[in-house]
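The aim of this short unit is practical: by the end, you should be able to scan a pair of folded records and say something sensible about each. We start with the first protein, listed as its amino acid sequence and then its structure tokens.
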Amino acid sequence: MSNTPGRPLRADAERSIRAILAAAERVLAETPGASMEQIAEAAGVTRTTVHRRFANRQALVDALAAEAAAKLAEAIEDGRPETAPPLVALHRATANVLRVKAAWGFALGPAAAQSEQAARTHEEINRRCLELLGRIREEGVIAADADLEWVRRVFYALIGEALHGDTGTAPAEADPDALAARIVDTLLYGVGPRGTD
């Protein structure tokens, strides 16, 4: 993020970067074409401070994408995908992901160019998701011959629809746990009638 890679940032510099990134997410979510000056104003810092931390607007957007991807990875790990019962892990990770995606809509959306760092993080997230789906398949909840890559893509599409579809409820107002239950239920059991046995 800083112009001096390899050197740890001072606490005040780190706070300034966090404030800039948080402001950039808010401002760019509302106005994707916002200038560095508008972002600086929203962050409560000078334009010079923003330029000292980020060489240009693209560097800022790349850092924002990397930060959001890291938050997404943390949200998934908080679901304990390797140690919790697989369905519990899937539900918890899904609710966590919904919270992060609602808070980082610009940085995790198509408008944000992904830095190499963000792209690597997203590849790792995909790998972790496939591992968790594999655990669920081992329990017999997903068909043994199911293409897990396809299941992952459907899962991501359901999350996207829950956040951006016309549900009548803004993502920030929706209950992430209730949405997660709906997503997981739809992913694993579809929309057909349930047996009563």
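Turning to the second protein, read its sequence before its tokens, just as you did above.
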Amino acid sequence: MAVDIKNLNHNQLNELISKAQVRQTELRKEKVTKLREKINALIKAEGFTFDDVFGARAPKSKRAGTTVAAKYRNPGNEEQTWSGRGKRPRWFNEALKAGTKESDMLV
């Protein structure tokens, strides 16, 4: 199927591109699935399990991706906060140097 792209208008060309990208994604997924099947068949043929060859998968952390509530707020800019973890932000250090107490900046 040959498509003469010189005769396509802007909308038709965009539609063709989006269809091609969808098809490309489908083909990639099919190829990955076939490759996984080949790898698993080879592993089984040798008498091993996936975990024997690649090691057991580590369970996902329950805390991964969670955010910590703010503990301190910048008195000069209410939008700036700090959880109290990690390196102190500049505004926090500058406020301490200016004489503000940590307890005064608590949320």
